[in-house]
TrEMBL record:
Keywords: FAD, Flavoprotein, Monooxygenase, NAD, Oxidoreductase, Purine metabolism
Organism: Serinibacter arcticus
Catalyzed chemical reaction(s): urate + NADH + O2 + H(+) = 5-hydroxyisourate + NAD(+) + H2O
Entry superkingdom: Bacteria
Family under the similarity heading: Belongs to the FAD-dependent urate hydroxylase family.
Pathway: Purine metabolism; urate degradation
Name the record gives this protein: FAD-dependent urate hydroxylase
Length: 394
C-alpha cells in the first residue's frame, strides 16, 4: 500500500517509520525547506518514549535525553524551595524513564531513520481529493501525488484537517492567555540542579529549566498577556528582562545566560477545543492537526507519538478496508486526546493567575507537597495510553 504523510514533524515522521516498517511504500511531504522545528525542546514522558522504543530507537533516544532525576518548585521572588521530590516513582510505575529532549535532535533522528530520500521538503500541500479508491495530494506548484491512504500531520493550521472536517463546524484555535519564551543554555547549578526540573513561580508567571543531552538545559518562561502583542526578534530578551525583573538569583542567572542570537523562541500559546472527526474516507489526521494542546502537562509530542503507535497497530491488524481501519483509529484516539487537551487547559488556568485566588492556593499547596500529588497527576496523564500493555505497577 502506498501512503502519503503530510508533515515532517514528530508525528508525521514517527507515523512514517511505523508504516514503512510494516512494509508499506511511504512518502512524506512538508512545506518547510529545512529542519527548523518550532520550540527548543519537549518533554517525553514514558508513554512517548515507549513509542520510540517500539520503533527501535531506544538507545538513540536515551542518548538524546536529559537525566531528569527530580522535580522542584521554588518561590520566584526569594528562590526558596517550596518542594523537591524524586521522579523515580514515575519510572517505577511505568517501566520507562522520562526524557526531556532537544526537539531538533529528535526530529533529525526521526527524519534520518525514516530516510531522507523519501522526505520532500519545500513542498506545500494545498488540497486533498479522494475518489473512493485512491487519495491525491495537490501541491502549490501544480503537481500532485496519489496513494491508497493519506495522513495529515501538518500541524495546528492543518490543510488536511480542512478536508477531513469539511461540512462540519469550523475548527478554530483558542488563545490560552500567555506567551512562552524558550530555548537552550548550558546547564548551571546556580539556576537549578543539572539533573532536575526546576520551576520558579510568582505572580502567575513561570520560569523553568530541565536537562537535555550534551550538558544543556531547556528553559522556558510563561508570561500571561493578551494575544497579538508586537514583538520583533531584534528585541531579543528585553521582554523577559522586564517581566522577570527582581526575581530570584537563579532566574537572574538564567536571564544573563540567554543569548538570543543562539537560542530564543517566542510563541503565543493556543489550543483547539476537542473534536472527534479525524477521518474522512481514506484520509486521517494526527498530532497537532487533530488535538492541538497547550504545553501545560507536557503531553503534546507524546500524544502525537501515541497516534503513530495506534495507527501502526491498526494498519497491521485490521484488513476490512482502509476506511474501516482509519475509523477504528479515530475511535481509539479522539476521546483520550480530547481529555488531555482539556486537562492541559485546566492546568494552565490554575497556574497562570487568571483567577488570583486559585493560583495563590496552588502556590500555598506547593509548600506541603511531598511529590505524591504531582506524580499522581503525571501518571494520570499516562495511564490511558495505548502503549501501556499491562498498566502501571502498584
Amino acid at each position: 500500500m502506498k501512503i502519503i504523510v503530510v508533515g515532517a514533524g514528530i508525528g508525521g515522521t514517527s507515523a512514517g517509520i511505523a508504516l514503512q516498517r510494516l512494509g508499506h511504500d511511504v512518502v512524506i511531504y512538508d512545506r518547510m525547506r529545512e529542519n527548523k522545528p518550532v520550540g527548543a525542546a519537549l518533554s517525553l514522558w514514558s508513554n512517548g518514549v515507549k513509542v520510540l522504543n517500539w520503533l527501535g530507537l531506544a538507545d538513540e533516544v536515551a542518548a538524546l535525553g536529559g537525566r531528569m532525576e527530580s522535580m522542584a518548585y521554588r518561590d520566584g521572588a526569594t528562590g526558596e524551595t517550596l518542594c523537591d521530590f524524586s521522579l523515580a516513582p514515575v519510572t517505577a510505575a511505568t517501566g520507562q524513564r522520562p526524557y526531556p529532549v532537544a526537539r531538533a535532535d529528535l526530529q533529525q533522528l526521526l527524519l534520518t531513520t525514516f530516510g531522507l530520500d523519501r522526505v520532500h521538503l519545500g513542498t506545500e500541500v494545498v488540497g486533498v481529493s479522494d475518489d473512493g479508491e485512491t487519495v491525491t495530494a495537490h501541491f502549490a506548484d501544480g503537481t500532485s501525488d496519489t496513494a491508497d491512504l493519506l495522513i495529515g500531520a501538518d500541524g495546528a493550521r492543518s490543510v488536511v484537517r480542512e478536508h477531513v472536517t469539511a461540512g462540519g463546524p469550523r475548527i478554530e484555535r483558542t488563545y490560552s492567555g500567555y506567551t512562552n519564551f524558550n530555548g537552550l543554555v548550558d546547564s548551571d547549578p546556580a539556576i537549578g540542579p543539572v539533573d532536575a526540573w526546576t520551576t520558579y513561580v510568582r505572580d502567575g508567571k513561570r520560569c523553568a529549566v530541565m536537562p537535555v543531552a550534551q550538558g544543556r538545559s531547556y528553559f522556558w518562561f510563561d508570561v500571561p498577556q493578551p494575544a497579538g502583542l508586537p514583538y520583533d526578534r531584534s528585541e531579543g530578551k528585553a521582554p523577559l528582562l522586564e517581566a522577570f525583573a527582581g526575581w530570584a538569583p537563579g532566574v537572574e542567572t538564567l536571564l544573563a545566560a540567554i543569548d538570543p542570537a543562539v537560542s530564543l523562541n517566542r510563541v503565543e500559546i493556543w489550543d483547539i477545543d476537542p473534536f472527534h472527526t479525524w477521518v474522512r474516507g481514506r484520509v486521517a489526521i494526527l498530532g497537532d492537526a487533530a488535538h492541538n494542546t497547550s504545553p501545560d502537562i507536557g503531553q503534546g509530542a507524546c500524544l502525537a507519538l501515541e497516534d503513530s503507535f495506534a495507527l501502526g497497530i491498526l494498519v497491521a491488524t485490521t484488513t476490512v478496508s482502509v476506511e474501516d481501519t482509519l475509523l477504528r483509529y479515530q475511535e481509539v484516539r479522539s476521546e483520550r486526546a480530547g481529555d488531555l487537551v482539556l486537562r492541559a487547559r485546566r492546568r494552565g488556568d490554575e497556574t497562570h493567575g487568571y483567577d488570583p485566588e486559585v493560583t495563590a492556593a496552588w502556590y500555598e499547596s506547593l509548600r506541603t507537597e511531598d511529590g505524591s500529588g504531582v506524580i499522581r497527576g503525571i501518571l494520570g496523564n499516562i495511564v490511558g495510553s495505548p502503549v501501556n500493555l499491562g498498566g502501571p505497577l502498584r
